[in-house]
Amino acid sequence: MIFVYGTLQNSQVYELVTKASFDDDFISQATLENYKCVYVKDEEFPGLIKDKDSSVDGVLLNPSEQTIKLLSVYEGEEYDLITVEVQALEKKESAQTFVYKDLTLLTQNLWDYKEWIQKIDLSAYLKRVENLLLTGDW
Question: Is the overall model pTM greater than 0.90, yes or no?
Answer without folding.
Answer: yes
